[in-house]
Amino acid sequence: MMLTASTRLLTVRVWRPTFFVKSPGVWCPPGRPFSTYCPLPQLPVPPLKHTLERYLLALQPLVTPEELEQTREIVREFSRPYSIGSKLQDRLERRSRRTENWLTDWWLQNAYLECRLPLAVHSNPAVVLPKQNYNDWKGQLRFAAKLIAGVLDFKSEVDRQVLPTGSIGVSQKPMDINSYAIPGKCDVLNFIVGEDGSCGVIYEQSSAEGPPIATILDHVLDYCKDPDTIRTPMIPLPLPKKLYFYITPEIKRDIEHAKQNLDILVNDLDISCFTYRNFGKNFPKQHGISPDSFVQMALQLAYFRMYKELCATCESVSLRNFHLGRSDVIRSSSSDSLEFVISMDDPKKEINQKRAALGKAIDCHSAYTDMQALKGLAIDRHLLGLKLQAIEEGLSVPEIFMDTSFAVATHWRLSTGQVAARADCVMCFGPMVPDGYGVWYNPLEDHINFSVSAFNCCEETNAESFSKSLEIALSDMQNLVLQTSGQAA
Fold it and tell me: Which positions fall inside the Choline/carnitine acyltransferase domain (predicted)?
């Protein structure tokens, strides 16, 4: 479970004073030129040919050869000169010239504000924070008070512009601190503090993805560790006054109905949180391997061992290096990752062949990350933009988006993400599809924190079983690297 059971829980709510309807322009202090404050480039519109070629590559490990050939024909028709695809690309490029970010408003509406699923489980992430060193209500209140002060200290640093450059997306500062979601006031950032020292965070993520939240949490937890050096002078304050709320029978029924629905959601969610202690991010680095790519290939191996196939796998990647950037997708399943997971358990393969297959799969993932996703050239948000451009103009949805292969390619049975933080914490998130998994991880120096989620209503998935498969995959890959470098464990 996300939080250790506690006899008393205190919810600390951080209020947001600005009505959040759409993503604002970059916040800039009065009198300071925009150009001197935010040098971030505009998010590019990828070339249509680039996206469609990589879309076909992404389909290779996921669909049959017959389905792939059928999709190739659809793609050829979509991309020919003067076709609907070419027209939508031109209009998308025109939108890019007329807006600060061609994607952000669409993504905000499509991913968050228009979704009718409950925010709990389906949208709002949670973060399990390190257990604190107290075990009574006095310690609980002291920690909660200092935690609030830490959030306000972060807000002060944002206002005074003393945060290190790049520590949080410039365009997201006002959204993290000064926004709340439609239809009105709500608690976007909730800190939960238990009497037994357990604590965590739940937040409404239309305002920001995980990395900016991790930055806030690192700051707040560092602030809470510092001893109080300066105390505010004591001033007379009015005595606390208990508030009484008049709840009508109708409101009471609505509350009970909401509680029942939430209980159903909670009971259906299967979460396994664990710490992998054989190694952390230092081990892959010592062998010239990207820690993130190493973990992603372990996820591919764990899934393949359980289901004997690969699935569409999305890894969230930040676009904060672009003006008003939010997120895109790294596709971790590839022909190279399929070759690796097959060879890993093939007794006919030599150990050096397995190591070569691992290296090739890792290089493929790293190249997608560095050369495409981080440069704003990943395929998924571009495909979404083309589809939404057609819908916005009242056109029929193009055949490429009605194709069976597209449904397979966007049925994210593995929804994953790295939310790296200095604190020894981990983020939790529900699966994106009923028969899928949500896997988030925080790689630290000598260990990795994982959370794995699934739905109990699906007989095909089990969070604990996947966690065990993932632990074995990580250890097997570690041994493979050590054996081929002459350092067998």
Answer: 43-180, 189-471
